[in-house]
Batch of 2 targets.
Target 1
Amino acid sequence: MFKIKIGVLTDKPQPVEGFDFTSNYVKSCTGKVNEPASNILNIISCFGDNRTARKRPEWIAQSKDGPATRANKGQGFLWDQICPNVKEYKTTLLNLIHKTSKAQITGIHLSCIGFPGPKYCTCERCKNLHKETQMDWIQYKSKTVTDFVSKASKIVKENKKTFSVNLLPDPYFGKERYGEDLPSLEKHVDFFIVPIYDLAYQTTYWLKTLAYGFRKQTKKPLYIELYAANPGPKQKNLQAAIVKISKYVDGIILATHDSEIAKQIRKNLTFC
């Protein structure tokens, strides 16, 4: 038997009974912005923003492999991604973070905090800034991401709310690929969330490998977000996935996007 925290990600901006905490997007990767949701963890998608990419295509992250958009089929992007060095866009994000942190919420969580991949971004902004820093490519990217997270953290903590960020599911090369440097980021966050989605979870050894990798690199609380929507994994597979990684994490977040589904799944998780 074991006891870990169980959270839920839903589409409704209100707490779900039976969970240790509830999370909901105040700004999703679609670009839509909602009003802050009271008494829950409010999520802000930072550089993933389809709406802004449509309106300001010159802000989209670039590389020799093409723009970081869903239309770039060879790269498999799930949403359009803005260059992390667009000052006007970062100001908008920080203003939203400030507004949200003033509301009656439990905390702010940032997703899409980094670069789209190892070859991004090579727009003129990034070329010039990279040259000015006189850093190598990887250090320049990680400094860009950490500096933004640091500014966001200061705003949130001044308003006495919890602050956390997403990490993409690569505990070994996240700094190189996305600019996500765990030792630098953990100075500014209360906890990390790593989304590891699968539609079945029929095999789970890879979940354990990833959870172990992140656990070895940070002492901050670590949460793994598992896909639990409908259609999705069978209940027994989801439970097996939770058991497999429970030794390495402080909590699990079920991405159900549906409060009623969430309640039913939680009811069946009698060992948590």
Note: The beta strands are 5-9, 21-27, 41-45, 107-111, 162-166, 191-196, 222-227, 251-255.
Target 2
Amino acid sequence: MKESEPRVVIVGAGFGGLSCAQALARAPVEITLIDRQNHHLFQPLLYQVATAGLSPADIAWPVRRMLRRQKNVEVLLGEVSGADVHARTVRLGEKALAYDFLVLATGATHAYFGKDEWEPYAPGLKQLDDATDIRQRILMAFERAEIATDPDEREALLTFVVVGAGPTGVELAGAIAELAKRALASDFRHIDPTQARIVLVEAGPRVLTAFPEKLSAYSERALERLGVEVRTGHPITSCSSHGVTLDKKEVPARTIIWAAGVAASRAAEWLGVESDRAGRVPVDAELRPTGLEDVFVVGDTALFIDESGAPLPGVAPVAKQQGVHVGRLIRAAVEGRGLPGPFRYRNWGNMATIGRRAAVIDWGTFRLRGRLAWWLWGFVHIYFLINLRSRLIVAIQWLWSYLMFDSGARLITGLERRNRGVE
């Protein structure tokens, strides 16, 4: 990299940040890509790690490895704590890194709607550490139930509450049900895992509210066939290590998982701009915050209003398309060419899986449900994995699980560290 070339600092190596860096592969710029983790994560399959369907390495790849052939990029491991838009720098530890263009792709975290004290009891699912922690909680619940002598405690240990019935919540509930009622069915001697109680709670009127009502209704029926209790129209009002309160009734449960909401990173605070209630930064048609010509915000951090007047959802295709668009904008600017025009999202639709042979697909005028939708869901997700090795491994594991009703990643890790008080 040449010192005279403009420097592009990208914060975040998720779908948006990585796509932007790759779009600038042949541009005459220096790129600094910063992330708190050393890996890029395929979040749509994170729930399968949490429910012991896949191993972490199946859906995560080292960022340095992915960009090793791109000579105009350097990767830094660290956490950005702020930005100075006047000095055009970002703070990384004790250092101030200068930029000519800044791309914030910092993603989102869990939102508890003002009840942050619930977080220790109801972890969310955003990172690999979240997934392995949830996997440990789920598997340890069965292990503790196996040795429990109090029937009430055993029942609470075998009760799993998932809060939020969007795609993540629906997929988690279905996967836990299949884990309990099929993969673990004959593994224990003193408990019957098939009697596990899985409760899916949604404050709204139905599950998968982003999908058409008919697909939503099908999804609810499919969950109920798996033995999931679907409770809509009532938010939880309390949450503790003992369980949740739902519709003024106590639901004793030792495992609670949060899939009800997200909040954007602190990017708006860094930039000194107003944000929406979820912390997202309003951006214009070129994905710039108002008044900041050299700053771009993409993915879950950005509030982009589409042609229909609705904000774009925080999903991987949005982040990827925005990252590519910003990369093209920056390249056109440094090469002195005409800009590619305003950002337009190409909506490829929504997909969600409920369980074995059950999924829903909404591609606008084309809608599909059931077994064929499930196979298509699997094909699409395998196709979008990063490399051939991951595609082959995931495909083989899914085929094995489909044929043998087995889940091969049922490892409980981290207990020794936790017992020693080390996080």
Note: The chain is about 30% helix and 25% strand.
